[in-house]
Amino acid sequence: MANVAANDHADEPVSATEFVDRALSCWSNIHSAGGNQSPHATVLPAFPEVADGRHATVSLTLPELPVDAFVDWLGPRLIWWPQGMPKHRRTAIISSRLGRRKDQKRWWFDALRTAVLHSDFDSEMLCSAPDTAAAAAVARAGELFGMPRLKLEIAPEAAISVADLRQWLQQRFDQPLPEKKAAACLEYVAEISPPVQVAASIDAAPASVAPEAAIRDAVTVVAAQRIVAVSCRPRGRIEALLRRQLNDERLTAPVLLASITGGEPVSEELIAQGAVPWILKERCPEPVSDANPINRPPDSTPNTTPQADVLPQQWVTRSGPLAEPDMWLCHWTRPQFGPWRHQPEEDFLDELILGCPTADRSALAALLRILEQKTILASRSARNAAATVSLTAVPLAEFRRRRVFRQHKQRYDFEPWGIAIRRSVVETLGGRAVTYVDLDSGGNKIDKATADTDSDTPSPAAFLQRRTNAQGTIDWSEEREWRLIGDLNLASLGSHDVVVFVNSEEEEFAVQGNCVWPVIAVPQP
Questions:
Q1: What residues are paired with 387 via a beta bridge?
Q2: Which of 113, 290, 405, 487 has minimal CB crowding within 10 Å?
Q3: To 5 degrees, how large is the angle CA 176–CA 182–CA 184?
Q4: 366: nearest Cα among 343, 397, 396, 395
Q5: What is the C-alpha to C-alpha distance for residues 354 and 138, in angstroms, rounded to an integer?
Q6: What would the pLDDT profile of 19-38 be if each residue is shown by its tens digit?
């Protein structure tokens, strides 16, 4: 069976029931033939051609992809094309998970940008499935550079009945067609149905790609006519899918493994099976990291306040947070995962894709942003609690020896970058030390505020903090935290009330030139 559509009636509307019946016949023939037949893109128009020259379409596979290969990888499914079926060659840019600090993966975004810009915009399109590791960046790169895109929306549900498949398709027949657009369509959608259980002897979906996350990666790999892997973790899911793709004789898409300085090593096993190393030269000589983070964002305007207003270093040595630790509280900055507060996700992706220095999200970059805005923004420490600014009474000189990596938060405690503020000023503004509470046998917080303060009024939720984590392995009370409700406007504080601290003398010199407050380096242990 080479084609489901009846050529004599290709322009006539077809009912959902009729199409599903023909699809069942095709799937049964594939199974009875033992996979020896390879019918290609079987397209059956659901509507006659509409005014803009395109029409919604339903199919059993993607163009140039054998139906039996599609079924073997994903199970028997239908594909609904609301904007019609594009004719572009499909390029998939795939990746293993990057981790939370995407700004430290500049090589990854260099490879992505190069892959997109080296594509033929007239004949190729980017394809990806939502919620895969590279999907958001690939989609944004396509938008930035004006390249056509195909979004593969695959249903993660388990196998459904034939009646449910008819209903799924009928719902799409009944929905309004996309309106005609003045410009050429740059984003197409392929809505892929749940698999249907057509017979007891035909698997609804291969066990190797059954989990929801794996099925999204699998559809991207099997749908592609060219694959660029910008990251492929050894023994990970992407490597397993590429190995399967290279060993499937029905799939002819070339596989390129990006090899770039500072990136991950390419898989020799995949190369031995036919993948091609794609050698790239890294644009940035070294990736952004907290170990070397002197990258002042170029959109930060240099400080124009006369440097004579900065207090002399002798005052800092005599009265600053190192000399009088009990008189000061410290707010330390930490790396930012993702966009800045109130920054759209698309803007952050643009910075990464275009290789902008402003993509730096290190603890030093966070400090520079605070100095530029002269404001420490408040955040919520607990659900339904007021947003607060957190500080610590731990002496600044102790920061380095207390620097512990918290695996569950993917960050360090007590980073050596931040701002020290005079304790009396924080108290005047309404700041206070938090009350550490224990959990009762039911996991509820026991408020110790009354016992600790001789007050009949319990502490507000914003000033309560669990003493330990759930396992009892971390004692949060060692942080000696203080909180201040609302944003902290540094510009309103006196010149003797703020001291900036950084990790090294090199950073001290660099930051002081753009700062109205004294800057000191946290001493080595």
A1: 380
A2: 405
A3: 90
A4: 343
A5: 13
A6: 899 899 888 888 666 545 55
